Amino acid sequence: MYFFAASLHEIALKLLAARARILAEVRAFFASRGYLEVNTPLVVPSPGLDLHLDAFEVVPSGVVATKAAPTRFLITSPEYQMKRLLAEGHGRIFQITQAFRAGECGKLHNPEFTLVEFYRPHAGVEAIMRDTEQLVARVTGGFIELGGRRIDVRPPFARITIFEAFERWAKTSSEEVLWLAKHDENSFFQILVDTIEPQLAKLEYATFVTDYPLEQASLARKKPSMPTVAERFELYVAGIELCNGFGELTSESEQRARLQNDQEKRRQQKKPVYPIDERFLGALAQGMPESAGNAIGFDRLVALACGTTAIGNVMAFADDEL
């Protein structure tokens, strides 16, 4: 028993050492491409209005929220503040930060986790996708060994639109996909989780899924050639969703309308309704350049690079260990 415990201890030490090495690789990668590392606040006035994300409210002991001391939240993403930096004229920026999402627990989820979020002004989704695949290849060496499988993550990655995926694996037409996204989101996600993602998991190579219905990307811009589609992509490796990237929406009026719509949906579903971040919208009104950005789940990336899919294996302490 002593030797077994010691072996587990040694494995844990090696995994944390690997995490530290990958963290250094990520920083070196972005530095080599002219990105500036930034740090934005963890406690903010609005955590985002995504219908599928719930935030942690920060309530100081014995203090009641007032106009002078409003309610604050832990970030679900640093997106609003990083886009404000873009509007102020900063160039390429990246951040490695903790993020927090209530109720997210499991093999691939933890209420507190690490994000790598980065943005390129004056660039589109193609440029940010190239950065993404090059980063993944750099930290993994181009291949991921996982349960006897060897997953190819050498650029360029394969691509499939969400419409092609639904047609190929769920026999669902583009028109049906658009209808589901707009009128029956639960069914859309049920097909995605039960049918599409298991097929993606069988692929022996990294794959970008692109061109989501507009309703599935409240912060992404419309694709110029297809106004019902958003410039959004996700990267899947062995069925694991590694990132969520956008061609960023820069219109203040359109963004405000989408956020108000998100608030109404949250209200209808009796979920907490978070305030709109007026300073974020003010930055868009001021003039944020055309940009693209991406958020990578760092814990998931490290786990895959280490040959596992359980992010708790590469964290010092997962939530169930506290």
Give descriptors for this structure.
globular; alpha+beta; BirA Bifunctional Protein, domain 2; 9-stranded mixed β-sheet; 14 strands; 322 residues; 40% helix
Helix-strand blueprint:
Elements: H1 2-32, E1 36-37, E2 43-44, E3 57-58, E4 72-74, H2 79-87, E5 93-100, E6 112-121, H3 125-140, E7 143-146, E8 149-152, E9 158-161, H4 162-170, H5 174-183, H6 185-202, E10 207-213, E11 222-223, E12 226-237, E13 240-247, H7 252-268, H8 278-287, E14 291-297, H9 298-305
Overview of the structural elements:
- Helix 2 packs parallel to helix 8 and helix 5 crosses helix 6 (185-202).
- The protein has one domain (2-321): BirA Bifunctional Protein, domain 2 (2-Layer Sandwich).
- Strands 1, 5, 6, 9, 10, 11, 12, 13 and 14 form a nine-stranded mixed beta sheet that branches. Strands 2-4-3 form a three-stranded antiparallel beta sheet, with no helix packed on it. The protein has a two-stranded antiparallel sheet with strand order 7-8.
- The radius of gyration is 20 Å and the shape is globular.
- The longest helix is centred in the N-terminal third of the chain and has 31 residues, at 2-32.
- The protein is an alpha+beta fold.
- It has helices at 2-32, 79-87, 125-140, 162-170, 174-183, 185-202, 252-268, 278-287, 298-305, and strands at residues 36-37, 43-44, 57-58, 72-74, 93-100, 112-121, 143-146, 149-152, 158-161, 207-213, 222-223, 226-237, 240-247, 291-297.
